[in-house]
Amino acid sequence: xKKLRCIAIMVLxxxxxxxxxxxxxxxxxxxxxxxxxxxxxxxxxGEDSAMDETKEGKTASDDETDTDSDTGSDxxxxxxxxxxxxxxxxxxxxxxxxxxxxxxxxxxxxTTTTTxxxxxxxxxxxxxxxxxxxxxxxxxxxTSGKKCYFIFGSHLDFAYSYDLQHWTKFKNNINTNYNTxxxxxxxxxxRGDSAYATSGNMWAPDVxxxxxxxxxxxxxxxxxxxxxxxxxxxTADNLMGNWTYVGPVIYSGFTAAGTTRTYEDTDYVLATGDxxxxxxxxxxxxSYTCYDGSTACEATxxxxxxxxxxxxxxxxxDASGNLWMSYGSWSGGIYLIRLSNSTGLRDYSxxxxxxxxDASASNFTDPYxxxxxxxxxxxxxxxxxxxxxxxxxxxxxxxxxxxxxREGGYQIRLFRSTSVTGTYVDADGTRAAAxxxxxxxxxxxxxxxxxxxxxxxxxxxxxxxxxxxxxxxAIIDSSGNRYIVYHTRxxxxxxxxxxxxxxxxxxxxxxxxxxxxxxxxDSISKTGYSTDLMCGTYEMVDMGLxxxxxxxxxxxxxxxxxxxxxTGDVTGTWSYTxxxxxxxMVINGSTYKGVFFYQQCExxxxxxxxxxxxxxxxxxxLWGSK
Length: 626
Description:
Blueprint: E1 3-4, H1 7-12, H2 60-64, E2 83-86, E3 102-104, H3 113-118, E4 136-142, E5 147-153, E6 157-161, E7 168-170, H4 173-181, H5 183-189, E8 202-210, E9 215-222, E10 230-236, E11 244-251, H6 268-272, E12 284-288, E13 291-292, E14 295-296, E15 300-302, E16 314-317, E17 323-327, E18 334-339, E19 365-366, E20 370-374, E21 382-389, E22 394-401, E23 411-417, E24 444-447, E25 466-476, E26 482-490, E27 498-506, E28 512-514, H7 531-534, E29 536-542, E30 556-560, E31 565-568, E32 572-577, E33 582-587, E34 590-600, E35 608-616, E36 621-625
Antiparallel strand pairs: 1-13, 2-4, 3-32, 4-5, 5-6, 6-7, 8-9, 9-10, 10-11, 12-15, 13-14, 16-17, 17-18, 18-20, 19-20, 21-22, 22-23, 23-24, 25-26, 26-27, 27-28, 29-30, 29-36, 30-31, 31-32, 32-33, 33-34, 34-35, 35-36
């Protein structure tokens, strides 16, 4: 059931402070060398590295209308062997220095097309897509020790794959027993809502292997219509389940004593020591009413403008092995709290300074909600996901912007920090926590609506282009490969959605760039490519910074010439770094850095295309397909 917030909220939006684009000299633009020679051995520190506030796409009815038009089954079944153990390690890898000799495109290079072909994947020509909204990925192994990937999403949609290309849905005891498992959480989330439906309010779980507990831990969002939500934890011995409910991790939407949603029925006092709710002013605003569909809920005074919404968890280990959880959606922004390694629940021994009800120029903390790291004050931003990359030495923060509907402008933004608690900044140094209702210039836009001509001959919903890709997770798997996993809608006039998996790579400045086409088993050539492959005419998509969700970005034509110039619809220069796939482009005064990647495209024949993916110092990304 779609959740519609009250008109009072929209009126209050007019008071949002609009001074955005705050800058910092934090390490966002430090140049860090990365090496493709060492990249395959790089592993993240932990096992899982892993709206509009209405969350209109997160409804059971929406998922029920989805279709999977690609080859393969979307049926529910169990894998031949259940996943039981975590893979990956806690190793940190020192940064290697790459070759710094940069050549114009006229320089000779020994890499040949044959080398590129040797990095080709082994795709069968078919893929099996699934409809899992807000997919969170984790890697495990089955009982025979074979690597297996799992994704967990909203509305109890779960799937597994052995190759990240062929996905199969499955069910567990949560699907059949959620009313009992989440009884306490539903009791909180349903307060003041006579129309509350439990089946449509289990959102965006995240799963991680807790090394201290020796258990898989699932963190599930239980949504309430008046922001009275709660993130809860469950445990299991294997990724197929069954799952056991443990308890709540954090709440939102609480109000004064004696009210329906009183703070006394949460862990607020335990976490803050504030027995009299003396900080109530910051969590309180004038009374307003939210609506569950057409049903008016009991009025609330929760400050949606300041308070974080307890949904969309991401749980991960930092470089020192400490367990953290980011969470939040629109409203008060994205926050971060420490979890206990031994219990997986909130670590109540960790306290957060009281910085008042207003953010300063830098990140601030709230005694209950923790570190404020992004967004807030009613601005867009949800589905945070943080990955620590030991090779790069950065924590990467992903956030999805705008409304998740097909024409809602949904897109993925990227920030990074050398510290787990921030400051997180984009490529031009703007803070993720910068204030302002307009977010267009805040965050590297790594994915938006787009189209390539090779899609036209495909066999899925995507033949006219992709739209509203977002709410991603990401992983560095046990082989050191980087992937981003997200749901996407299509330029097909419907709200259907499916999961997509793309590879990611570090550029020479330590920023992540995303492969142009979905993953089909191909590997990048660590020694680079021949000039014959790199030179030529490409379709190029500029992801830009726009939130226009109604249109699909069409490609322009550019030619990378052997003399190092770029001609066509845009002009500039390009160069590459010898014996690597690294490429640098200068277009309209902006510098872009990324990689060449020879990979299978998404046409019906899945022929190989040379592609490039680069990230600019103006926060936009360019994708090219030859």
